[in-house]
Write a structure and sequence with these properties.
This protein is an alpha/beta fold. The chain has a single domain, classed as Vaccinia Virus protein VP39 (Rossmann fold). It contains 11 helices and 7 strands. It has a 7-stranded mixed beta sheet, sandwiched between helices. The longest helix has 16 residues. The protein is globular, with a radius of gyration of 17 Å. It binds S-adenosylmethionine.
Length: about 260
């Protein structure tokens, strides 16, 4: 039997390949998407607990139950960035790692027909599923693009608000995600992120396990490192809005806000 490579022996492209394989399964949840030996945190809850979990994260249950199951069944977030974002009619929103689309669809109602929501995701199966979901919901103000958030298929200064839910921990080059985010935001634009971060170093067995990486744990970095990368990309007024303990040892779920200065 082929031995699984340690993360330290993998190239960034190999790591992304494993992330894509894992989220192709999350997009098709009849197959087991959380089969790794490590604890996983963003592989999606069971059917029965899904709406309850979303309500606990602050989503409006009345909105969530109206979404097709094909949206909620592949939800793999760890927070509620739309709740943080104070979205206004007419704004252009970019969702990094948009998955099956739940946050995009909640955001698209808030920005209305005069606004727009763009999702970027690198897993073709997720992009296809989100496009099908947008069609089912008739959301003509939502567009999903296949691409890497380390090299976004998005124009300079074309976005008012960036949201992202449990994704940046999965990017091998987080500095690139933040410099790209800064590039595409208009001056005065804002970034509202929910993500998993570390309060203490992970136990060594998890640090090198790819299943822990695809499960949003082994790629998580300390909160101060996350803030430093944002600051180095040019963001200001960086604020940890909320920090929630998770069952996954040293990992916390964090809501963080940051701004691109006005010119
Ligand atoms: C944990 S899921 C979260 C999905 C969605 N935000 C949600 O809340 O349901 C992570 C998603 O990010 C995508 N992703 C991970 N790394 C990415 C990257 N470098 N570029 C684009 N998408 C990425 C995966 O394909 C997957 O759909």
């Amino acid at each position: 039997m082929a031995e699984t490579k340690k993360i330290s022996e993998m190239t960034p492209d190999e790591i992304k390949g494993e992330v894509k394989k894992a989220y192709a399964q999350v997009a098709q949840p009849t197959q087991s998407s959380c089969s790794g030996s490590a604890e996983s945190s963003c592989c999606g809850p069971s059917e029965s607990s899904r709406v309850a979990l979303l309500e606990k994260l602050g989503y409006d249950g009345k909105v969530v139950v109206q979404l097709p199951e094909s949206v909620t069944e592949s939800y793999a977030g760890c927070g509620n960035p739309v709740a943080l974002a104070s979205l206004q009619e007419g704004e252009v929103v970019l969702d990094l790692g948009s998955g099956a689309g739940l946050d995009m669809f909640v955001a698209s109602e808030k920005v209305g027909q005069s606004g727009r929501v763009i999702g970027v995701d690198m897993t073709p199966e997720m992009v296809e599923k989100a496009r099908e979901n947008a069609a089912k919901l008739g959301r003509t103000n939502v567009e999903i693009r296949l691409g890497d958030i380390e090299d976004m298929p998005v124009d300079d200064e074309s976005v008012d608000v960036i949201i992202s839910n449990c994704v940046i921990n999965l990017a091998p080059n987080k500095a690139k995600v933040f410099t790209e985010s800064f590039r595409v935001l208009r001056p005065g634009g804002r970034m509202m992120i929910s993500d998993l971060m570390l309060e203490e170093p992970l136990p060594e067995d998890l640090q090198n396990e790819i299943a822990a990486y695809t499960g949003c744990i082994a790629g998580a970095v300390p909160i101060d490192e996350y803030e430093r990368l944002m600051r180095e990309a040019g963001f200001t007024s960086i604020e940890v809005v909320e920090k929630v303990i998770t069952p996954y040892r040293s990992v916390v779920s964090v809501n963080i806000a940051a701004f691109k200065p006005s010119k």
